[in-house]
């Protein structure tokens, strides 16, 4: 992540919106995603204002950014620790913090929202910001599962509203899904695509459908994994993966179907995770990844999918997931989720 020219200068035209120069970025929500987005935006030369509800939270956001930058600097400046320190300092200086979202958007070219996954709260936020942000400012949501159209409907700038869906951890994951609604202008989409590239990411364009591309495929897999665990799993379907861990050969479909229809014995989340890592080549198994993402987020995502597609059994809720969230066991961020974390 080198400091790069960060300006996106669009073709000149009579419309103010077409001349979008994304220099100043406001990120609302300083949790794991907002802090990550702030980090990559600052690392690519943007001036960033990070907003959250309290100074204590914002201090933790800056710590998250510093922690991630330390890992980057360790590689980039392995033999020059002082240069590494300077690199971190320069990037962190590009991030200012605020608890006042309304003022923070006033000089902003782009607002990226990464707050709690709740439609009403996101709509309330954007509706307030819409009244104060300059007319050229583009609004984007990092939602995992809510409709961009539904969120944008709270504003009077639906042509300048899109989805900008980053992946966790933002510093490492190369993909950004850029989502347009029927009302999003081509200029806005182009600006969001260009911005993603300036951040060093690879953008893909998505329609505003539940889960866009990646979560539409990941979430059913997650829910099937939880159900497998809740009702017991037939361990023989992972046998070939254990016997030949380096081969990564896919389990034959017929064997999988046989095993899924003959469930018996104790479930093991560890075995499911090993199965998906060694048998399907994922870097993390579903339970590890759910703990990494946050179980509150996973629950909110499933509920949003269910709201849009109520008859689909893939999105039926899970008693176990609901219980863990009710107990405050949200994964790595609280020290316990499906697993205990140090
Ligand atoms: C199995 C499929 C089903 C899963 C379903 C899951 C849940 C579905 C619900 C979705 C809810 C909503 C989520 C969403 O909207 C979208 C998402 O973001 S989905 C999550 C996407 N993310 C992933 O899939 C992450 C997968 N994991 C990885 O890629 C790696 O494990 C990871 C890069 C996180 C860590 O790598 P690993 O080798 O495991 O560990 P190391 O600690 O050794 O790190 C390797 C390397 O990377 C550097 N690094 C790691 N984290 C950071 C960081 N935050 N900042 C900077 N650098 C980082 C680290 O320093 C190491 O560098 P080296 O040079 O190798 O030393
Ligand atoms: N966790 C993940 O892996 C991913 C999450 N997302 C999405 O990103 C968004 C944020 O997720 P996380 O960062 O994981 O959540 P998080 O819980 O880590 O952070 C959310 C932050 O928003 C703050 N916040 C809540 N309401 C606010 C408001 N009205 N104004 C200002 N700040 C407010 C909270 O204090 C918190 O710090 C969600 O929409 C989620 O679905 C998207 C991709 C991956």
From TrEMBL:
Which reaction is catalysed here? a (3S)-3-hydroxyacyl-CoA + NAD(+) = a 3-oxoacyl-CoA + NADH + H(+)
> Chief location of this protein?
mitochondrion
Residues binding CoA:
68, 75, 144
Annotated GO molecular function terms are:
(3S)-3-hydroxyacyl-CoA dehydrogenase (NAD+) activity; NAD+ binding
The site feature described as Important for catalytic activity is recorded at 165
Q: What is the lineage of its organism?
A: Eukaryota, Metazoa, Chordata, Craniata, Vertebrata
Name under which the protein is recorded: Hydroxyacyl-CoA dehydrogenase
Cellular component terms (Gene Ontology): mitochondrial matrix
In what residue span(s) does the 3-hydroxyacyl-CoA dehydrogenase NAD binding domain sit? 24-209
A Pfam family (short name) is 3HCDH
Named in its record, the pathway it takes part in is: Lipid metabolism; fatty acid beta-oxidation
Q: Which family does it belong to?
A: Belongs to the 3-hydroxyacyl-CoA dehydrogenase family.
Task: Give UniProt keywords alphabetically.
Answer: Fatty acid metabolism, Lipid metabolism, Mitochondrion, NAD, Oxidoreductase
> Which GO BP annotation is one of this protein's?
fatty acid beta-oxidation
Q: Which PANTHER family does the annotation name? A: HYDROXYACYL-COENZYME A DEHYDROGENASE, MITOCHONDRIAL, PTHR43561
Q: Which organism is it from?
A: Astatotilapia calliptera
Q: Where is each 3-hydroxyacyl-CoA dehydrogenase C-terminal domain found?
A: 264-340
**Chain positions recorded as NAD(+) binding sites:** 29-34, 52, 117, 122, 144, 168, 333
Give the subcellular location.
Answer: Mitochondrion matrix
